[in-house]
Design brief:
251 residues, alpha/beta, Stationary-phase Survival Protein Sure Homolog, Chain: A, nine-stranded mixed sheet, two-stranded antiparallel ribbon, 23% helix, globular, binds magnesium ion, EC 3.1.3.5
């Protein structure tokens, strides 16, 4: 019976994490360890400068007070599971997509990255939608991916970034293996005047904006497919090594 560890960056109370937990539960033992608050955009942050607290919400369901998704995977593995290695780490289902360069900010994708660093096959799941997200339907699509990964496995040092269109499981057109797309940046800084005169700033995306090149993560979800992008821990740009050879200095 597989052991599956789940986290997210939206917080333990989110609809997406419960839908994923409920849908995966028939497959094996599913343990949830998630932040106590919404930490979307926290990336791969690990907490070194303060202690963390664990709270049991229900059986096999924990919140980490002040913990990031990466912290949650650590505490889940080392404390809750007492070092028993999960067969799979899942992060999500995130409320909103994680496409293109946005994955570098994503706590959801970083939860899966942390699982991979600990040597565990890992998958990040995100919903391609902002409103009226059909989490229970999306969770069924996620389960299909999970079942295939548990059956066949994924290469070492690889983790998967999965985005699911906001469609019923039957309406989804299939699963596409994709490459990371490109963001068409539309972030804005909003300014506010505080009651005592100070100017405050709020960074927010105005709307979705990605280049719709065929074969990318964005193209797949836009066209009704589940997007599966294989990611790796090694960020080295091997293609650039020859061009940047000039930087070397033998002294
Ligand atoms: Mg989020």
């Amino acid at each position: 019976m597989p052991l599956i560890l789940i986290t997210n960056d939206d917080g333990y109370f989110s609809e997406g994490i419960r839908a994923l937990r409920d849908t995966l539960k028939p497959l094996g033992r599913v343990v949830v360890v998630a932040p106590d608050r919404n930490l979307s955009g926290v990336g791969h942050s690990l907490t070194f400068t303060m202690p963390l607290r664990l709270r049991k919400v229900e059986e096999d369901f924990y919140a980490v007070i002040g913990g990031t998704p990466a912290d949650c995977i650590h505490l889940g593995y080392h404390v809750i599971l007492e070092g028993e290695k999960p067969d799979l780490v899942c992060a999500g289902i995130n409320e909103g997509p994680n496409l293109g360069e946005d994955i570098t900010y994503s706590g959801t994708v970083s939860g899966a990255m942390e699982g991979r660093i600990l040597g565990i096959p890992s998958i990040a799941f995100s919903a391609f939608g902002r409103e009226e997200i059909m989490f229970s339907e999306i969770a069924k699509s996620c389960r299909k991916v999970v079942e295939r990964v548990l059956d066949v496995g994924i290469p070492e040092d690889t983790y998967l970034n999965v985005n699911v269109p906001n469609l019923s499981c039957d309406e989804v057109r299939g699963i596409k293996l994709t490459r990371q797309g490109k963001r068409d940046y539309k972030e804005k800084v909003f300014r506010y005047r505080a009651p005592y005169g100070e100017t405050l700033y709020w960074i927010a995306a105005e709307e979705f904006g990605w280049c719709p090149d065929e074969g990318t993560d964005y193209w797949a979800v836009l066209n009704g497919y589940i997007s599966v992008t294989p990611l790796q821990l090694d960020l080295t740009n091997y293609g650039a090594m020859k061009e940047i050879k000039f930087i070397e200095d033998e002294g």
